[in-house]
Amino acid sequence: MADEMKTPLLDDLEKGRWPSFVTDLKQAAAKKASAKDLMGQLEKSYVDRIGHWKHGGIVGVKGYGGGVIGRYTDMPGDFPGVEHFHTIRVNQPSGWFYNTKALRELCEVWDKHGSGLTNFHGATGDIILLGTTTDHLQPCFDDLANIGFDLGGSGSALRTPSACVGPARCEWACFDSLDVCHTITNAFQSQLHRPMFPYKFKIKISGCSNDCVAAIARSDMSIIGTWKGNIRINQDEVRACAQGGMNIQAEVVDLCPTHCMGWDGTTLTLDDRECNRCMHCINLMPKALRQGVERGASILVGGKAPIVHGALLGWVAVPFIKLEPPYDELLEFINKVFDWWDENGKMRERLGELINRQGMGKFLKAMGLKPAPQMIKRPRANPYYFWREGVN
Amino acid sequence: MATRTDFGPPDYREMLPPVIKANYGKWLYHERPQPGVLKHVAESGDALYTVRVGSERLLSTDKVRELCDLAEKYCGGYLRFTSRHNIEFLVSDANLLAPLLGELKARGLPVGGTGHSITNIVHTQGWVHCHTPATDASGVVKAVMDELFDYFGTMDLPAYCRISLACCLNMCGAVHCSDIAILGIHRKPPQINHDIVKAKCEIPNVIAACPTGAIRPDPARKSLTVNEDRCMYCGNCYTMCPGMPVADSAGDGVSIWVGGKVSNTRGGPAFSRLVIPYLPNTPPRWPETVAAVKNIVEVWAKHARKHERMGEWIERIGWERFFELSGIPFAEQLIDDFTTAPETYRTTAAFKW
Ligand code: SF4
Ligand code: SF4
Ligand code: SF4
Ligand code: SF4
Questions:
Q1: How far is B108 from chain A (nearest CA, A)?
Q2: Less CB within 10 Å around the terminal CB: N or C of chain A?
Q3: For chain A, which residues score pLDDT lower than 50?
Q4: What's the pLDDT at A389?
Q5: How far away, in angstroms, is B118 Cα from ligand 2 center?
Q6: How far is the CA of B84 from the centre of ligand 1 (A)?
């Protein structure tokens, strides 16, 4: 290259044992002027200690209201290659499984149309294609469509649902998280691709309460696997754990939050009616303990990060639901939630904030859900309650 | 050809290796033969080895192809990614496990992130590609993971420790429920550009976007004013209106939060709590942030009981003891004054010195 670019600060991040994103930037920069200017701009950010992207603009492809995030540099004179540098969100397959044919085709499309830089994956779950120009958006999407990849969600829309690895490789999946994710994503394509809601809506799906996709913390609707009935105990395997060095009393029994287990040195006892299905003991002894056979999920609503009125964890709305194809009951519930939120939510009001403003009682009533102690940690401590006609 | 729309993601079933198709939903148990390797055994007796590899998340197509080469050589052409940006090679032929591990080592691809380890840091775009960051993402993560590298490939901690980074309060990703969260923060109110506000912003929406009611209309200028005493620099107004930038090279930096958790085990999910309100942005390696994270990890590792996550340990010993053991000065910003504040005040006369 004639105008060899100097990036001493970024170069420093090529040292060390963790894989370096700077190496990826350099690989892309060797092929693409846009990636080279991205590196130049990032080095400038490292010097200036501030970002150099302008406030995003609205760009898109035909038939979609989202899926593309407009991005423009504030230094087009210095870095013309990133004058337009838009992101494309591509809906990942459930569970982030790929065959290499699909990945290679994706790389080919992205080398043809964009910077050659990606994220596997964005925080919400999409494949992120980082950086292309406005005139490449439509042809890029057309090529993506030809290899079977559709766009993900952005803006005030359903965001791309994601799911844990589930029954594909986990013995603890209480329902088919991959299939539920795929089914929901396909059932609500319009809500995903054309922002029409008060704000964003996230659905995350975990096969058990270990919650590997952090559903409870960040999704307006979390679908989290659980079971009913007794934990299946293989006493020989429990003893094998003990012989292998596990202190069953200290590590398993004493840490059980409901104190429902006992251990006499040879036999593990468990009062299943008192177990709250937290997964601790099963995590520790996967060979010895298995969940109960009647399986399904709990649905929690209202989880979100702080913007606007503070972070919320999801609240139990449906303590137990069976999840089997075609999942009609689930899809109907999601539709009801969408309708109620759409009708009552103010602009940029997440579901949890709306429930907070209107009251959980109103939400439950609108959903036709019967109040149950499983929905609360403890009852109210203030005497400010209503006595309305028809309150159930 | 008319452009087709709304056809949805590829069918995951086409992406599953044969051993998974054959044993789908029929896995019996798993073991951890060594750090970074999981062995799942199915009812059929089939075994699947998963080799977990840390990644930088920001991948070039060259790197993706390198991963494809490995998956084709050892895994019949299949691989997956985890929610924490790791790569998982799915090995059904036990004889290929050792050669794969050997090749990963030779290529400098780190194997780990299982069991009681520190796995990859969930993170966001930062200065690479977002318009609202208060810090970079990839650079901070690289610097922290270089320092914590040995914890990635071992499983000797009391429990696992999930670290996350978000470069602004929008918090793409669930950093607010992490054992350790690194969060980019601004420290200066928006610099209003009245011409842009007038031309481009919906004034009532911008006013409504402010969590503390700091924004008022300025009818004379057809613009807005900000009551700087009420502004806590969240940047929400800027998201709504390009005329209100909050980023500032001297003011921006990093805050550190600890003790959050998402899994329902034992005490259940919990938010992370603020312990360090500000550290400077010091590219390329953010030494203050790296040292702060390392210190917290080491103090926890030294004092926590087995299976005690960061937050469980702190709740047991008490926050007053946490600040003593960690040597972190107790800053006034740690006392909540938002609407959620009262639940964080101590409402018992029982505490430790
Ligand atoms: S959430 Fe539960 S079922 Fe899903 S991968 Fe994690 S442990 Fe397995
Ligand atoms: S799942 Fe949790 S509550 Fe139930 S027995 Fe095991 S440790 Fe106790
Ligand atoms: S956390 Fe904030 S700055 Fe970082 S990528 Fe998300 S919105 Fe952008
Ligand atoms: S930065 Fe946040 S607190 Fe400050 S004026 Fe804007 S919206 Fe309000």
A1: 8
A2: N
A3: 1-2, 392
A4: 66
A5: 25
A6: 14
Q: Cβ of B57: how many Cβ atoms within 10 Å?
A: 28
Q: Which of A31, A37, A36 is nearest to A53 (CA)?
A: A37
Find all residues with CB under 8 Å of B106, minimum gap 6, and list them: none
Going from the C-alpha of B246 to that of each of A105, B225, B231, the distances in angstroms are 40, 14, 11
Q: What is the mean pLDDT of each run of 10 residues along chain B (353 residues)?
A: 86 98 98 97 98 98 98 98 98 97 98 98 96 97 98 98 96 91 98 96 94 95 95 95 96 98 96 98 98 98 98 98 98 93 93 95
| pLDDT for the residue numbered A4 | 72
B243, amino acid identity: G
Compute chain A's Rg from CA coordinates: 25
Q: What is the pLDDT of residue A186?
A: 98
Which phi and psi angles does B133 have, rounded to 5°? -70, 150
The torsion angles phi and psi of A260, rounded to 5 degrees, stand at -110, 10
Q: Which of B233, B239, B240, B238 is nearest to B255 (CA)?
A: B233
What angle is formed at CA B269 by the lines to CA B114 and CA B300, rounded to 5 degrees?
A: 55
Least CB–CB distance from B61: residue in A102, A118, A149? A118
| Measured distance CA(B190)–CA(A55) in Å, rounded | 14
In this prediction, residue A3 carries a pLDDT of 58
Residue B129: closest CA among A281, A353, A349, A118: A118
Task: Locate A133 and state its tokens.
Answer: 């120009």
Q: Which letter does DSSP use for residue B172 in this model?
A: S
Nearest alpha carbon to residue A301 among A354, A344, A265, A249? A354
Ligand 3 atom with least separation from CA of A51: 3
In short, whether A167's Cβ falls inside 6 Å of ligand 1 is no
Check: CB of residue A88 under 8 Å from CB of residue A108.
no
Cis bond before residue A308 (omega within 30° of 0): yes
Instruction: Tell me the backbone φ, ψ of residue B302, rounded to 5 degrees.
Output: -75, -35
- Which residues share a beta bridge with A263? A268
Contact partners, residue B338, CB within 8 Å, separation at least 6: A310, B211
Question: How close, in Å, is residue A134 to chain B by CA atoms?
Answer: 16
Q: What is the pLDDT of residue A390?
A: 57
Both tokens of residue A319? 């303590």
Q: Confirm whether the ipTM is greater than 0.95.
A: yes
> Between the CA atoms of A12, A16, A19 and A21, what dihedral angle is there, to the nearest 10 degrees?
-10
Asked whether the bond before B284 is cis by omega within 30 degrees of 0, the reply is yes
Global pTM?
0.97
What type of residue is A73? T
Cα of A198 vs centre of ligand 1, distance in Å, is 31
Identity of the residue numbered A260: C
Judge whether B133 and B167 are in contact, CB under 8 Å. Answer: yes
**Nearest alpha-carbon partner for A71 in A127, A114, A27:** A114
Which structure tokens are listed for A42? 């990032």
Nearest to B167 by CA among A305, A69, A76, A72: A305
Could you give the CA distance from residue A14 to residue A67 in angstroms, rounded to a whole number? 32
Q: If you count DSSP H runs as helices and E runs as strands, how many of each does chain B have, helices first?
A: 11, 12
Helices (H), chain B: 18-23, 61-74, 97-106, 138-147, 149-152, 194-200, 203-209, 236-240, 287-303, 310-317, 319-326
* Closest residue to atom 7 of ligand 3, CA basis: B170
Which residues 198-257 of B are in CB contact (within 8 Å) with A?
205, 208-209, 211, 234, 236, 238-240, 242, 245, 247-250, 252
Angle between helices B97-106 and B61-74 (to 10 degrees): 150
The secondary structure of B106-138 as a DSSP string is HTT--B---SSS--PPB---GGGT-SS-SS-SH
